[in-house]
TrEMBL record, chain A:
GO terms for biological process: proteasomal protein catabolic process. PANTHER family: METALLOPROTEASE TLDD, PROTEASOME SUBUNIT BETA TYPE-1. It comes from the Eukaryota. GO terms for cellular component: cytoplasm; nucleus; proteasome core complex. The 26S proteasome consists of a 20S proteasome core and two 19S regulatory subunits. The 20S proteasome core is composed of 28 subunits that are arranged in four stacked rings, resulting in a barrel-shaped structure. The two end rings are each formed by seven alpha subunits, and the two central rings are each formed by seven beta subunits. The catalytic chamber with the active sites is on the inside of the barrel. Component of the proteasome complex. This is Proteasome subunit beta. It comes from Entomortierella chlamydospora. SUPFAM superfamilies: N-terminal nucleophile aminohydrolases (Ntn hydrolases) (SSF56235). Belongs to the peptidase T1B family.
Automatic annotation (TrEMBL), chain B:
One of its GO terms (biological process) is proteolysis involved in protein catabolic process. This is Proteasome subunit alpha type-4. The gene is PRE6. The keyword Transmembrane helix does not apply. It is found in: Cytoplasm. The keyword Cytoplasm applies. The lineage of its organism: Eukaryota, Fungi, Fungi incertae sedis, Mucoromycota, Mortierellomycotina. SUPFAM superfamilies: N-terminal nucleophile aminohydrolases (Ntn hydrolases).
């Protein structure tokens, strides 16, 4: 299953996803985009059922965009995550629920604080300083417990992320191709090299 | 008023003079439908609110289903379609507004469309809707030139508005869009500068047409 990471710092959130698209035992593609920019300061990463992931995340993306155009102001990351959670909760007791796990990373421009939310397909949502989805979580959450601090800088955050990915490379039976990392801060969303 | 230039489109509206206690910022006649499409309307504001909301949903819905932004013609056709539907159903009345829709498609060509309550739509080089639209349209017909640049297009839009808006820059709202498809609203000082330019030109015209006494 695909791995997603999110780490908050002093004034940013760094996220990473492994860029492979898998079908059964075959590696279909490297370089798959598992993120969607919901608005200028909110980013959503998804994993789980491939079709559901794209369908759900694009639906959320369009609704968040519509809110921005209708009201002339963007939703905060907390509101974005709550909206996504609500959609997951409604889907849970429908005929076929969405099978997606999400990380929603954002920067709240009103309070000037980074935000990271961990959501799963059962519509749980928690506000966390760092998070992971997939097998990568089993290996890396303890690393993050040990080395994460609330006030790390962006460089330290990138180093911490590299430590986690290094752990996966050495201990996971599956090959880990390149991860794509994106940072959300007060200036918006950008890709970083890791 | 809407005017199309060589690489810019301009929408101008006359702001109803704000009643003293009213908060001006909440009265906005130029609405963004999507990042690259803008709409100005004349008529019942409440009807416009409903129609603009429908159009905004359609813009995002289009992006979701075909992963592409709407073309200006598509969204105009949609709005005109909604307006027409309400002329042919039972128990509803037509939308009491005409709209001017402007924007740029991916082909980077400026577009300006108009719809009216009957659901008719067409593309225009320059047009006016609302009070005294006939006067303004005739003025535009006389003064429109092909391929005007940015400054000329803005000036023509403001000049045509000044024909019917007596009170000047304070009651004019202008939105422009260039090839970058970003909507820009002009500030009061910018509008005042152009108005001053226009008034200076008018003065010069008046001087020239005055018969000079020494030629007798």
């Amino acid at each position: 299953m695909e791995t997603l990471f999110g780490i908050t710092g002093k004034d940013f959130v760094i996220t990473a996803y492994d860029s492979k698209a898998v079908a059964s035992i075959t590696l279909m593609k490297i370089g798959e985009d598992k993120s969607r920019e919901l608005n200028s300061h909110s980013l959503m990463l998804f994993s789980g059922e491939p079709g559901d992931g794209v369908h759900f995340s694009e639906y959320i993306e369009r609704n968040i965009k519509l809110y921005g155009i209708r009201n002339g102001i963007e939703l905060s990351p907390k509101a974005v995550a709550s909206f996504a959670r609500r959609e997951l909760a409604d889907s849970l007791r429908s005929r076929k629920p969405y099978s997606v796990n999400l990380l929603i990373a954002g920067f709240d421009v009103k309070t000037n604080r980074p935000a990271l939310y961990w959501l799963d397909h059962l519509a749980s949502m928690v506000d966390v300083p760092f998070a992971a989805h997939g097998y990568g979580a089993y290996y890396c959450l303890s690393l993050l417990d040990r080395y994460h601090r609330e006030d790390i800088t962006e460089e330290e955050g990138i180093k911490l992320l590299q430590k986690c990915i290094g752990e996966l490379r050495s201990r996971m039976i599956l090959n880990m191709p390149d991860f794509v990392a994106k940072v959300v801060n007060k200036d918006g969303i950008r890709i970083v090299q890791i | 008023v809407g005017v199309r230039g060589s690489d810019i489109v301009v929408l101008g509206v006359e702001k109803r003079s704000a009643l003293k206690l009213q908060d001006e910022r909440t009265v906005n006649k130029i609405c963004m439908l999507d990042e690259h499409v803008c709409l100005a309307f004349a008529g019942l504001s409440a009807d416009a609110r409903v129609l603009v909301n429908k159009a905004r949903i359609e813009c995002q819905s289009h992006r979701l289903t075909v992963e592409d932004a709407v073309s200006i013609e598509y969204i105009t056709r949609y709005i005109a379609g909604v307006q027409q539907k309400y002329t042919q159903s039972g128990g509803v009345r037509p939308f009491g507004i005409s709209t001017l829709i402007m924007g740029f498609d991916s082909d980077k060509v400026p577009k300006l469309y108009q719809t009216d309550p009957s659901g008719v739509y067409s593309a225009w080089k320059a047009n006016a809707i609302g009070r005294s639209s006939k006067t303004v349209r005739e003025f535009l017909e006389k003064n429109y030139k092909e391929d005007m640049d940015r400054a000329e297009t803005i000036k023509l839009a403001i000049r045509s508005l000044l024909e019917v808006v007596q009170t000047g820059a304070k009651n004019i709202e202008i939105a422009i869009m260039g090839k970058d498809s970003v909507i820009q609203r002009l500030g009061l000082t910018e509008i005042e500068t152009v108005v001053a330019e226009i008034e200076a030109e008018n003065e010069k015209e008046k001087e020239k047409s005055k018969p000079s006494t020494s030629q007798q």
